[in-house]
TrEMBL record:
Ranges of residues in domain AAA+ ATPase: 81-299
EC number: 5.6.2.3
Record keywords: ATP-binding, DNA damage, DNA recombination, DNA repair, DNA-binding, Helicase, Hydrolase, Isomerase, Nucleotide-binding
Polar residues: bias regions: 43-57
Chemical reaction(s) catalysed: ATP + H2O = ADP + phosphate + H(+)
Location of region: Disordered: 19-63
Protein name: ATP-dependent DNA helicase
Top-level taxon in the UniProt lineage: Eukaryota
């Protein structure tokens, strides 16, 4: 590929020129030029790539560059007024965008630090998606197998616990200097954000609410901490044991006093195909309508892609994903190249779930891979798909011009949207350090964004990935920012948008799995469905009825289109 500087139209630019009117549905078997990921329904609700840094970086716009839609702005206004807020909505309604803006507000306008403002989620992957950590780790509950009494005893200390039960404050019940880190976190916290609260069991919510009041010596709901909750209870269900299905967080005894006003976002910004939107809402509510069956039939055949373009398989079970990726890699000619991560001394196998990069990664020429880090806004972002075309040192590709080294200093010479600015000297130092490293890194051919057939070859050198662990602090791991991308699990796909996807519904076992899988597709023309059966559509009727009760209260439904209107 000619070594030229590339300027690409951003998804925001494209969307700003599109009509907000609904487009007619077209069931197409061709996917030559996918639509932009973010399609606006209201003029201000478009999201582009982000510069957020976490172990799971996603394409999302810098919050300063985006104007929230009116419905989304209402959520932010409630937060600014100091209210406890739970906001929800179907996939694509901009929950992540609103959450990023909320975090930005507290950090920039309120000058809150990591001690005052805590960003969490129930799982490691969901936590890193929002630039935070796991709720369990922050709260000091570990894997949450101990009783409330034992947990409190562990956090405040055996010598303090009896006195605190009699109403003595945590500071008067013992030496304040001897407080453990978990207790200090609870005391210092002013705002607690929990993303994907829908994956949190009611019993755990009640446990944390009691802990907050007890540790902080404050009988206000959640000990006076401002709560910001987000999630979709019709996506993946609460995490619980194998013996019984856990109840939803909104069924917790303490939920009504903690959540003053649930807010429902109902405009979908990710898809502009109204037929697809209607089908997603059918599936979300367990309605197998004639239009849904017609849509599924139309998409139950292979999609024709341009040469070198392929979909990602979404599968229900990890073993299926692992088997497909391993089989695909074994089927390629040549020997596999192993890449082993390295990190700080606190990293270990027990922390693997916090990172998106693997400890051990094997690649071959021809391997299909997914980029796990944002390198160039709108062009090379987390989720970009490519193919390994060779291996080389940084010095070799720099000398020959055969590829661009995947570090900001080199990328800035290739793409106008690549990062530059204050970190220029650091980027330059990083670049020259790469030239002195004789590791043969993978060269990956990526497409330059979703709406172009132009490709670029990138030498994927190792990058640092950070994960938040509330006891150990920020932990880093350095690894090639790639993963095999023949298949990924539906659970791992939650929160992502995929340009080209083949959804395998075999082995669906969880409520919401089918809906989550189908709603990952940015463009229905690039969606293939295999192993369809009506039994794959599983929902929880309790959650459905709860959403209907929200929609019945019109002032709380923020948007033009409610679930009941999709019938």
């Amino acid at each position: 590929m000619e070594n030229k500087r590339i300027k690409l139209e951003t998804s925001v630019d494209r969307c700003m020129t599109e009509s907000a009117a609904a487009q007619p549905a077209h069931a197409s078997a061709s996917c030559a030029t996918p639509s932009p990921v973010h399609v606006k329904t209201e003029p201000s609700a478009t999201a582009g790539p982000s510069t957020q840094t976490s172990s799971t970086e996603r394409p999302a716009a810098d919050s300063d560059a985006i104007q929230l839609a009116p419905a989304q702005e209402q959520v932010l206004s409630r937060v600014k007024a100091g209210h406890n807020v739970f906001f929800t909505g179907s996939a694509g309604t901009g929950k992540s965008l609103v959450l990023r803006r909320i975090v930005q507000y507290f950090r920039t306008e309120k000058n809150m630090s990591g001690d005052d403002l805590v960003v969490t989620a129930p799982t490691g992957l969901a936590g890193t998606n929002v630039g935070g950590g796991t709720l369990h780790s922050w709260a000091g509950v570990g894997i949450n197998v101990e009783s409330l009494k034992q947990t409190l005893n562990n956090i405040v200390g055996a010598e303090r616990y009896p006195a605190m039960r009699d109403g003595v404050s945590i500071f008067e019940a013992g030496n304040p200097d001897a407080l453990g880190s978990s207790a200090k976190r609870w005391i210092q916290c002013k705002v607690l954000i929990i993303d994907e609260v829908s994956m949190m069991a009611a019993s755990f919510f009640d446990k944390l609410e009691h802990m907050a009041r007890f540790i902080r010596g404050n009988e206000q709901p959640f000990g006076g901490i401002q709560l910001i909750l987000s999630g979709d209870f019709l996506q993946l269900p609460p995490i619980g044991g194998a013996k019984s299905k856990p109840r939803f967080a909104f069924q917790a005894t303490s939920w009504p006093k903690c959540v003053e006003e649930p807010l429902l976002l109902s405009n979908v910004y990710r898809q502009n195909d109204q037929a697809f939107l209607a089908v997603l809402n059918d599936i979300r509510r367990n309605v197998i309508s004639p239009r849904s069956l017609a849509f599924i039939k139309a998409h139950s055949k292979p999609v024709e892609y341009p040469s070198g373009v392929w979909p990602v398989d979404l599968c229900a079970r990890k073993k299926t994903v692992q088997a497909r990726n391993d089989k695909a890699l074994r089927g390629l000619a040549g020997s596999a190249r192993p890449f082993t991560s390295y990190g700080d001394s606190r990293d270990g196998p027990h922390l693997d779930s916090l990172f998106t990069v693997q400890r051990e990664l094997s690649l071959k020429v021809g391997a299909r891979v997914m980029l796990l880090k944002n390198l160039v806004p709108n062009v090379l972002v987390n989720g970009s798909l490519g193919e390994v075309i060779g291996f080389s040192t940084a010095a070799q590709v720099h000398s020959s011009g055969s590829a661009t080294i995947g570090v900001p200093f080199a990328l800035a010479g290739k793409f106008e949207s690549a990062p530059t600015g204050y970190a220029y000297q650091r980027y330059e130092k990083e670049f020259y350090e790469c030239l002195q490293d004789y590791t043969e890194w993978p060269i990956v051919r990526f497409r330059c964004g979703s709406s172009t057939t132009e490709t670029v070859d990138i030498l994927c050198v190792a990058h640092k990935f950070y994960a938040a662990h509330f006891d150990k602090g920020a932990i880093w791991r350095k690894q090639v920012p790639l993963a095999l991308a023949y298949a990924i699990t539906i659970h791992k796909a939650q929160g992502q948008t995929l340009e080209r996807v083949r959804v395998d519904l075999a082995g669906i076992f969880e409520a919401g799995q089918c809906y989550v899988a189908l709603s990952r597709a940015a463009n229905p023309a690039c969606l293939e469905i295999v192993n369809w059966s009506e039994s794959a559509v599983k929902i929880n009727n309790v959650a459905v009825e709860w959403y209907r009760s929200l929609e019945a209260e019109a002032p709380k439904c923020l948007g033009k289109r409610a679930m009941s209107e999709m019938n």
